[in-house]
Write a structure and sequence with these properties.
Blueprint: H1 13-26, E1 33-34, H2 35-42, H3 46-58, E2 62-65, E3 70-73, H4 76-87, H5 89-105, E4 108-115, E5 119-126, E6 141-143, H6 147-155, H7 159-169, H8 182-195, E7 198-201, E8 208-216, E9 222-231, H9 237-259
Antiparallel strand pairs: 1-3, 2-3, 4-5, 4-9, 5-6, 7-8, 8-9
Organism: Carboxydothermus hydrogenoformans (strain ATCC BAA-161 / DSM 6008 / Z-2901)
Domain HTH iclR-type: 12-75
Pfam family, one: IclR_C
Length: 261
Amino acid sequence: MVLEEKENKSGAPAVEMAIKILTYLSRYRNKNRTLAEIARDLNINKSSCHRILKVLLDYRLVSYDKNTRQFSLGSFLIVLGSRASEFNDYLKIAKQHLKELAETTKQTCVLVEPIANNRLVYIAKEEPEAAVRITVSIGQSFPVTSASFGKCYLAFLPEKEAREIVKEVGIKQFTDKSITNVEEFFQSLEVIRKQGYAVSFEEHTPGVFGISAPVFDNSGSVRMVVSCIGLASSVNEETINFYADKVKTTAQKITAIFSDM
């Protein structure tokens, strides 16, 4: 799928293209891509794409396999990611609460944040010490209209903004339980706003459930989402309610961090 390139208003098109390339390669399905594939999928001129990739390669922000002629994320991004984690005090504290949530629920717990192009990305995770569990990758991104965290994030945006995003991104049917009707989708967001959390039961991935609650910044705007995800076969109404209460409490604790900043 070709991503339509919007009119550039940043004044730094090369920088924006570089960011798009790195974001593109961060998606699991795009982790190894040729120059032609990157240029095609991002709708970037091939020669411009090559020049940008060469600079990113020089700074080890991407790596290149001469045998397969494919690019992937570079090793220096690990250093930058580690530094970013160290310098973001709020994330350190938030991860402590996330760890407590994982220990209490015995489920994989994640912190999700919006990024460019109306996508969400995992920025922190805690996984239980269990033989069978859901595993996710930090940096993995997905459409904002997907899963419980997407619905939760959209539910607490101003409705006009949420509708504009849904119109632009669309609603993809991931499973036979996905909500694809726009009005039905927005009715589910209203329920989420009233109860304070979102539940997704095999709507994004077969066999997987998710429960999410919003984290707000000091202006009252939704900043990120806390989620608990696990195997759908392991839960019932009672455990769903228990997890929802714990996820909401964790989201409130992380929200309190922003109010103190």
